[in-house]
Specification:
The complex is a heterodimer of chains A (about 170) and B (about 375). With about 170 residues, chain A is of the alpha+beta class. Chain A contains one helix and ten strands. In chain A, a hairpin with a 3-residue loop joins strand 3 and strand 4. Chain B is an alpha+beta fold and about 375 residues long. Chain B folds into two domains: about 5-225, no CATH class; about 270-380, Ribbon (Umud Fragment, subunit A), CATH 2.10.109.10. Chain B contains twelve helices and nine strands. Chain B has helices at about 5-25, 30-50, 60-85, 95-125, 130-140, 145-150, 155-200, 210-235, 240-245, 250-265, 300-305, 370-380, and strands at about 90, 205, 270-275, 290-295, 310-315, 320-330, 335-340, 350-355, 355-365. Chain B has a seven-stranded antiparallel beta sheet. Chain B is elongated and about 80 Å long. The chains are: A alpha+beta (about 170), B alpha+beta (about 375). Strand 1 of chain A pairs parallel with strand 1 (about 90) of chain B, so a sheet runs across the interface.
Chain lengths: ~170, ~375
Amino acid sequence: MVRKRDRRNILIGVLLVAIVIMSVGYAAFATTFTIGGTATIPNNWNVAITNISVTDTQGNATSTTSTYTATTATFAANLTAPGDSIEYTITVTNSGTVDARLKQLVPVITGDAGAIKYELVNAPETDSILKAGEVITLKIRAEYDSNYEGIVDPDANTRAITLTLDYVQNS
Amino acid sequence: MKNIKFILPLIIVILYLLISNIFLINNFNTVYYLWINPIFWIVMFIICIILKNKYNRYRNKINNIQKVFIIMLFFIIIYYLLGLIFGFNYSPYSHDILSIIKNIWQFIIIIFFQEYIRNYFISNSKTKKDFIIITLLFIFVGLNFKTLISSLNNISDLFTYSISTLLPLICSNILCTYLCKIGSYKLSLVYKIPIELIYIISPIFPSINFLLNSIINIFLAFLIYSFISYDYQKNNQELSRKKIKKENPFLLIPFLSICIILICFVVGVFKYKPMAILSNSMVPTYSRGDVVIYSKPNQKELENLDLYNIIVYRLDDIIVAHRIVEIEKSNNGEILYITKGDNNPTNDNKKVKGEEIIGVVKLIIPYIGYPTVWVHDMFTN
């Protein structure tokens, strides 16, 4: 029994060394790793987008896509003429037990319809605090820019935007 | 069950859970998590010391602690190695010294007291019913009722919540109750604290899909249970020689690994991914209830796409797999694919760009998608 116990202690030592080597490796190569957004941690950390809805449309505007994950919201507006606009409302909920701070809000626009412009109408400031249990909404408006001077492609009336919300613990 | 040592603390914890979920969390959220909750568990710990544990002698305590610790270390190594496949995400937790101390106080210290109190309940309980009550109590302790209630709004949120939080919580609590019974609270601490500590101090986490994450945690609980109960039965001579060989928990590892590989396939880790067909728009090629296997195309495969290939793409809020019937160029030279369901009278409205293509259908497996279709129908009707 004692022998077995010693062998197990050696195994524990080896595994701990493996973890230390992994940590050291991470520290050494951290700059070359591709690391995505912020992780979701069960139970205590749960800041997530919980809904997207279209709250206002003008003219012939339609929404072709609206999907979301915990930290990203993607939607695409289809606008064909000046006067068309659409407004999306995104709900962010902190259901965890830790206060969160908005580190950054990154919008990435894709698509050829240069005449469609997106504007953050009501968005939280960087470093604003979302307390545990709180809910906030942000609004984004897509508008057909009548002053757009580029070439308008009649086949490309859609432009998508992906918003990434990067929340971290408020220390 | 009739003894006061069991019932009194039980009533206090139930009352506390009620008051905190109805009143405290809603009105004093930050103060509650930072002060009220930890202090309550410390007070409960003192109450349990005053009431005194019934003395239990645990056999093979150190051996069991070693075994659980070894499994946990393996788990941590495998969990992080998964990051090499799935990629990594940053931890949302702050890593300055003050925040780490705050998080240890808020999360780790509580685990210590909660497991001690669980152990107290177990040593003062007699019947199976008591163990079930204890497990249920600590499941409720771990539940975030606000999230649970908000997840009741729609079926997909409820499913996500059940899979990502509820199931692992239930499994982990069943295991903790068992570990406390077999080897005191120290054994369940060896299981619970490394996970929580890693969450607090690690700067990165593998970017794992919630389903896989949940399954891994459930398997971990199951594996620890299998090893410890096998040893317990072996040492108490509850297993025959034949059963000792047959029920060796090492035999579970290949089975669990295959399950994880299957789940990886379903969640789309590999190049090939399955999709259940919900409509008859592609009859006779495939119909509702079939499964298509599609591959994520690389740039070269996208360039080689041709007429009559079946592509998978997102159309509004659904994903469709339809055949390319025309290929045209937009004014700016971009290739647009026009698709149509074989059974549909007209082409699809959307012209699909190369970047919008999720996959190219490679294989059709009939009928095996029916369970998905039934579940989908059940919740959408």
